[in-house]
Amino acid sequence: MPAVTVADWTVLPRVITAPTQLEDRAPISVTTAPRGFEGEGFPVHRAFAGVDPTLLDPFIHMDQMGEVEYAPGEPKGTPWHPHRGFETVTYMIDGVMDHQDTHGGGGSITDGDTQWMTAGSGLLHIETPPEWLVVKGGLFHGLQLWVNLPKADKWLPPHYQDISRDDVGLASTPDAGALLRVIAGEVDSVKGPGSTHTPMTMVHATVLPGAEMTVPWRTDFNALVYVLSGSGYVGRDRRPISSGQLAVLGHGETITVGANQQQDSRHPALEVVLLGGLPIREPMAFAGPFVMNTKAEVLQAFEDFQKGKLGTIPTVPHADVHGEIL
C-alpha cells in the first residue's frame, strides 16, 4: 500500500491551503472499528460500528477488508447474494477481486481499481478472488462502502462502473507532503471519475510523517475520516487518530489531517480515506442486503429474492465469462 502513486508529487495539481479564518471541521467522535468476518470468512474492520446513522447519512456501512497476507489456498470471497436500494463501492488497494452480477456487470479489480455497483431495483452478485490467486496466495486489502440511494432512485435499473486506477484524480498539498487520490466527487477542482446518484466525495490520501494537509470541503456535506494505517491527528486541535479508527467531523469548510513524525516500519505514512456526502434525510429500513424506506419494502425485497425476481445465478463459471488474469 498504496496502490496508486507517482514518482514526483510536486508535478501534480495542488490542493490550495485554505485561509486560516475558515472554519475547520472539529471531530465530534472517534471510534475504533471492531473486527469481524465477511463472506466465506475474510477478515474485516467494521468502520461504522457504534456510530449514529444520522451522522453517517448518506453512507450506511463500510468494511476495511484485510489487510491480510494469504498463504496458498487461503484467499476467500463472498458467495452469490442479493442487493436492492443502494450502491456498493469496492476499492481494491492491494490484491485482486473478481466481480460478476446478474445484470451483466463484472470484471477484475486490482491495485487501485474501484468497482461501483448501483444495485437499484435489485440484482445478485458475487465477489471472489481469481483461481490463480487462490492457488498462489498473496496480499489482500481494500474497502467496501455502501451508499444509500434516495427514494426516487431506489428502483433504477442496476448499473456497473469499472473505475481504473489510471482514471483516479491525483493532487498534492502545496508542500507535496500529502498525495490525494480522488475517486469520486471533487476537491478544489480535482475531480474523481466515479459517477454517483447521491452527491458525495471519496478520497484516499497518503500523508507523509510530520506533514499536514488542509483540504476544502463542501459545507452541505458531512465529513468522515477513516484511518487505513498509521497514526496522526485530525482537526486543528490535533485529536489523535490511528489505524482502524473513524473520526466523525462537525460543521466547517475545511478538513485538517496530520501524520505523526514517527510511524511504524510496516506502514511508513498515514493512510486515510476522506468521505463526505449530501445527507438524504429520508426514513431508512435496513435488513441484511436490502436498504429501503419502509419495513414493508424490505420484506418485499426478501420475497422477491426468494421468488427469483432479482436474478438467476448463471451456470457459466465467472472465469469462463471474463477470462483469467495470469
TrEMBL record:
Superkingdom as given in the UniProt entry: Bacteria
All residue ranges annotated as the Pirin C-terminal domain in the record: 203-310
UniProt domain Pirin N-terminal: residue ranges: 49-147
One Pfam family per UniProt: Pirin
InterPro entries, alphabetized: Pirin, Pirin_C_dom, Pirin_N_dom, RmlC-like_jellyroll, RmlC_Cupin_sf
SUPFAM superfamilies attached to this UniProt entry: RmlC-like cupins
Family of this protein: Belongs to the pirin family.
Name listed for the protein in its UniProt record: Redox-sensitive bicupin YhaK (Pirin superfamily)
